[in-house]
Amino acid sequence: MADVISVNDIRPGTTIELEGQIFKVVEFLHVKPGKGAAFVRTKLKNVRSGGVVERTFNAGERVNKAALERREYQYLYNSGDEYTFMNNETYEQVTITADKLGDQKFFLLENMNCYIMFYGTEVLDVELPNTVELTVVEVDPGFKGDTATGGSKPAKLETGYVVQVPLFIENGTKLKIDTRTGAYLGRA
């Protein structure tokens, strides 16, 4: 199921299999000391648990490249803590728990297209568009000249997510939100 590659060929974003776990390479550094053999120092993120480990490999050492498949799905609906997605070509449906989605669940809108990463039949990750437009449903009114709070206030969005916004934002305003950081980017 996996190709074997040299550690000299790994780059950030490469996914590899080590000791039965799947890791995404976050950082790597090829080191050639004056004495001794060259080696590769890496930072690896466990795709399942999210934990980060540092690992050093001898130059030329071989590792298994994890065969991940990235497929486009459309978000349909949620029922309690389960979120359902559908493949538009095969109509196959996949259900992902709220725990697996984490804060990404706050950025899902019905009929939104996103990518799901699979390892065999196991869902590893969901990639959302970088930005999403959400409507403000609850925000305190801003008062002219009110900057004692640093010029921002909390606003509740249609999905239940709370984000810090400038004082001039009102109920019903459509906002652009970064799905990677959860930050307010501007009005839509």
Question: Can you characterise this structure?
Answer:
The protein is mainly β. It has 3 domains: 3-65, SH3 type barrels; 69-127, Beta Barrel (OB fold (Dihydrolipoamide Acetyltransferase, E2P)), CATH 2.40.50; 131-187, Nucleic acid-binding proteins (OB fold (Dihydrolipoamide Acetyltransferase, E2P)), CATH 2.40.50. 2% of the residues lie in helices and 54% in strands. The protein is built from 1 helix and 16 strands. The strands form 3 sheets. It has a 6-stranded antiparallel β-sheet with strand order 1-6-2-3-4-5, with no helix packed on it. The longest helix is centred in the middle third of the chain and has 4 residues, at 98-101. It is flat, with a radius of gyration of 21 Å.
In short:
Helix content is 2%, strand content 54%. It has one helix at 98-101, and strands at residues 3-6, 15-18, 21-31, 39-46, 52-58, 62-65, 69-79, 82-86, 93-97, 113-119, 122-127, 131-139, 152-157, 162-166, 174-178, 184-187. 17% of the residues are buried.
| pLDDT < 50 stretches | none
CATH class of the largest domain, named Mainly Beta
Provide the CATH topology of the largest domain: SH3 type barrels
Q: Structurally, how many domains make up the residues? A: 3
- CATH architecture classification name of the largest domain: Roll
The sequence of SSEs as H and E is EEEEEEEEEHEEEEEEE
User: Please, what is the oligomeric state?
Assistant: single chain
What is the number of beta strands? 16
Strand content: over 45%
Cα Rg: 21 Å
Alpha carbon gap, first and last residue: 44 Å
Helix content: under 10%
| Alpha plus pi helix count | 1
Nearest-integer average pLDDT: 88
The largest sheet, given as strand count, sense and whether it forms a barrel, is: 6 strands, antiparallel
Strand order of the largest sheet: 1-6-2-3-4-5
Structural class assignment: mainly beta
Query: How would the global form be characterised?
Result: flat
